[in-house]
Structure formats: structure tokens, C-alpha cells
């Protein structure tokens, strides 16, 4: 059974901000497509294998920020804290390029690659982002990192398209 939310249209007074659109869950995709969900869990486990747990969470948070997936942002911030990540680095992640002193060159390379793979605005991952990441990660580790980025993007798309609500993990 799905929950349906009734939306009413309100007219804002001139100069006032328009009311926020309330997003509610659309469906419980994991229950309706359990084989896909199980495959995603297995892919997630395989993708992060051999990568530093805090780096994994930084990548997941950053991709989720870019994809506007509130459910995943909430979950991965909690996971990052559990992995020992600091509050300051979590808070600054959205502006990591301006806060480079807080992230190692290796983390910066991973975050730049995360943004390039997540956005794909030019239709490809720029050589500069790939080359910097390749300079900090061996080939096998780079393959894992790309798999991790691809996997969190898939999770984000499930979360955003079905409007999964934060705090319900």
C-alpha cells in the first residue's frame, strides 16, 4: 500500500516567498523490487571493498549532495560520524574546493572525480579529474573508486525518484 499526499496550491502575497513544495514518499521500491535491492546491496559492498571507510563516506555524501538526495545525505553523514569523520569536515564538504586544508590531496582527487562522474555535464569525465585521481590511486583502487561513485549515484536515483524520506533508514 502506498501513501498518497494531497498537495494544495496556495497563492503567495506579492513579494513573499512561495510556499515550499512538500515531498512525500512515492513508493517503497526496495519492497516492490527486492531482487534489485539485494543486487544493489551486493554491488555497494563490492564497490567499497579495499577503500578507506571515511573516504567512502565522503564520496557518498558529496555525490548525494550533488544529486539532492536528502535520504542518502542523512544516512551517510551518520555513517561518516560512526567511521570517525569530524563534524568540521562533514560541514565543509559542500565547499571542499574552498576548504582544501581540511582534505588530503588524495581525498580532493576522489571528490573531484566524484563530481565529474556524478555531473557528466560535458558528456564525459574530464581528463584532468581522471588524471589527478589516477595519480593518487592505483589502477585497482581507482576501479573501486569509480564503482563506488557509480553505485552511490544509482542509490541516489532510487532515493530521489521515489522520494525516500531522511531519517527512515
Structure notes:
- With 169 residues, this protein is mainly alpha-helical.
- Helices cover 59% and strands 0% of the residues.
- It is built from eight helices and no strands.
- α6 packs antiparallel against α7 and α6 packs across α8 (139-161).
- It is globular.
- Mean pLDDT is 88; it is low at 1-14.
How are the SSEs placed, and which strands pair?
Elements: H1 29-32, H2 34-47, H3 53-66, H4 70-82, H5 87-92, H6 105-119, H7 127-136, H8 139-161
Helix pairs in contact: 2-8, 3-4, 3-6, 3-8, 6-7, 6-8
Search tags:
disordered N terminus; 8 helices; mainly alpha; 169 residues
Name the structural class. mainly alpha
Give the tally of β-strands.
0
Alpha-carbon Rg, integer:
18 Å
Mean pLDDT: 88
Largest sheet: none
- Share in β-strands: under 5%
Alpha plus pi helix count: 8
The helix content, as a percent range, equals 55-70%
Shape: globular
Give the H and E element order.
HHHHHHHH
List unreliable stretches of 5+ residues. Answer: 1-14
Measured between the Cα atoms of the first and last residue, the distance is 19 Å
Please outline what is shown here:
The chain is 59% helix and 0% strand. With 169 residues, it is mainly α.
Amino acid at each position: 500500500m502506498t501513501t498518497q499526499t494531497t498537495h494544495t496550491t496556495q497563492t503567495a502575497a506579492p513579494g513573499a516567498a512561495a510556499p515550499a513544495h512538500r515531498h512525500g514518499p512515492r513508493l517503497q521500491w526496495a519492497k516492490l523490487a527486492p531482487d534489485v535491492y539485494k543486487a544493489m546491496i551486493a554491488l555497494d559492498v563490492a564497490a567499497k571493498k579495499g577503500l578507506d571507510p571515511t573516504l567512502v563516506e565522503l564520496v557518498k555524501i558529496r555525490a548525494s549532495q550533488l544529486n539532492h538526495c536528502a535520504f542518502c545525505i542523512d544516512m551517510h553523514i551518520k555513517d561518516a560520524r560512526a567511521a570517525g569523520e569530524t563534524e568540521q569536515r562533514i560541514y565543509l564538504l559542500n565547499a571542499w574546493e574552498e576548504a582544501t586544508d581540511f582534505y588530503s590531496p588524495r581525498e580532493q582527487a576522489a571528490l573531484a572525480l566524484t563530481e565529474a562522474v556524478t555531473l557528466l555535464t560535458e558528456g564525459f569525465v574530464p581528463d584532468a579529474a581522471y588524471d589527478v585521481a589516477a595519480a593518487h590511486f592505483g589502477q585497482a583502487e581507482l576501479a573501486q573508486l569509480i564503482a563506488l561513485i557509480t553505485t552511490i549515484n544509482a542509490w541516489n536515483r532510487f532515493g530521489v525518484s521515489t522520494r525516500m524520506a531522511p531519517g527512515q533508514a
